[in-house]
C-alpha cells in the first residue's frame, strides 16, 4: 500500500525500514497490464526519528531533575539565609554554578564534561591571578556527576571567599585530582587545600554547603568526603569510585 511503512529482512539477516511505491503499467487503451513496486529504504529517517524521541525523553528527564534540584536549592538557601540580600546572593551563586556546569555539558552534547574544564569554569568568578591552582589528568564525567561536582566546588569557593583563603589577597587554593587504579576499580581523588589565609576555626553549626559536601557526594555518587577545618585553612578530600558515576 502506498505510504505504508514496514520492515524487511535482507538475505544477510539485517533489517531495514522501507515504504512501497507501487506504479501500475497500462497499455495504450489504459488497461492495466502489470505493475512495478519500488521499495524505498527509509531506515535512516526512522533511526533519526527514534533518536529524536530518545533525546526528547532524556531532555524531559533532565528538566524534571533540574527543577527538583532548583527547588531543593531554594529551600535550603532560605533556611540558612540571614537576610533577603543574603538569600539573593546565595541563590544567585548556586544557580550560576549550575549554569556553568550546563554550559560545559552543552558543548559536549550532554554526553560528558571534562573535570578540569568544569572546575575552571565553576571557579572562574573567584580566580584572581594565581590564587587558585589546578592540576590533574583529564577525567570525563557524565552529567549527574558534573552537576554534583560543580555544586560542591562552588560551596567550597563561596566559603573560602567569605571566611577562608580567598578572602585575602595572599590566600591560595590548590585544587588537585588524580585517578588511582586499585584492583579492578578506578578511584577519583580530589583535594581542595587552602593556605596563607586567615586562621580557620571549626564551625559550630554546619551550613548547607558543608552538609552537601559531607553527605551530597556520598548520596549522589557513592563517594567519601572529609572536610577539615585546619588552622592553615580548609582542606576537603573527596574519593569517588568512577564506576559509580560513569
Structure description:
With 246 residues, the protein is α+β, with helices and mostly antiparallel strands. It folds into two domains: 6-27 and 34-41, no CATH class; 62-244, Histidine kinase-like ATPase, C-terminal domain (Heat Shock Protein 90), CATH 3.30.565. Helices cover 42% and strands 30% of the residues. It has helices at residues 43-80, 84-107, 115-122, 143-162, 208-221; strands spanning 6-9, 15-26, 32-41, 113-114, 132-136, 140-141, 172-182, 185-195, 224-230, 233-241. The strands form three sheets. The chain has a five-stranded mixed beta sheet with strand order 5-7-8-10-9, with helices on one face. The chain has a three-stranded antiparallel beta sheet with strand order 1-2-3, covered by helices on one side. It has a two-stranded antiparallel ribbon with strand order 4-6. Strand 2 (15-26) and strand 3 (32-41) form a beta hairpin. The longest helix is centred in the N-terminal third of the chain and has 38 residues, at 43-80. It is elongated, with a radius of gyration of 27 Å. The two termini are 46 Å apart. The mean pLDDT is 80.
